[in-house]
Design a protein that fits this description.
This protein has 162 residues and is of the alpha/beta class. The chain has 6 helices and 5 strands. Strand 4, helix 4 and strand 5 form a beta-alpha-beta unit.
């Protein structure tokens, strides 16, 4: 089980690291790279080619501003690509969001919320869960825990305002 995580700049790491930690928590082999679509395009193409041939099952690509990275990755692979638009410009991530969701027909990029790296990890895990029963079981257990936590929070609120 492999997922690649690529970001355009080291300054993106603090927003992307939660996804890396979630993937590792689920026991997923995670290849992490910092490769700008504009400044390191040769190395990015080499990395995508590695992913195309090494069993990588999903790629998370995070970028801000023009956010070309997810689209450039998707153009070079048929592995599912999950784009994470990052805030950081005067448009606070809306520019990145619009760039990622406006991919041309035939080159899709699944897109999560601005700074939504955690959901990118969970979406990658759901993709893996189609082939790996242990991941699917862990995801169901996580959902059950979220349900239990929400129920307890509700009960606490009811008691507080009785």
């Amino acid at each position: 089980m492999k997922v690649a995580v690529v970001m355009g700049s080291t300054s993106d790491l603090n927003k992307v690291e939660p996804a890396i930690l979630i993937l590792k928590e689920y026991g997923v082999e995670t290849a992490v790279r910092c490769l700008s679509a504009h400044r390191a395009h040769t190395e990015l193409a080499q990395f995508i080619e590695e992913c195309n041939n090494n069993g990588t099952e999903a790629i998370i690509a995070a970028a801000g501003m023009a956010a070309a990275l997810p689209g450039v990755v998707a153009a070079q692979t048929v592995i599912p690509v999950i784009g994470v638009p990052l805030s950081g410009s005067v448009l606070d991530g809306m520019d990145a969001l619009m760039s990622i969701v406006q991919m041309p027909s035939g080159i899709p990029v699944a897109t999560v919320a601005i700074n939504g790296a955690k959901n990118a990890a969970y979406l990658a895990l759901q993709i893996l869960g189609n082939r790996h029963e242990n991941i699917r079981e862990k995801l169901w257990a996580h959902r059950a825990q979220m349900h239990e936590d929400a129920t307890k929070a509700n009960e606490t609120m009811i008691e507080k305002y009785r």
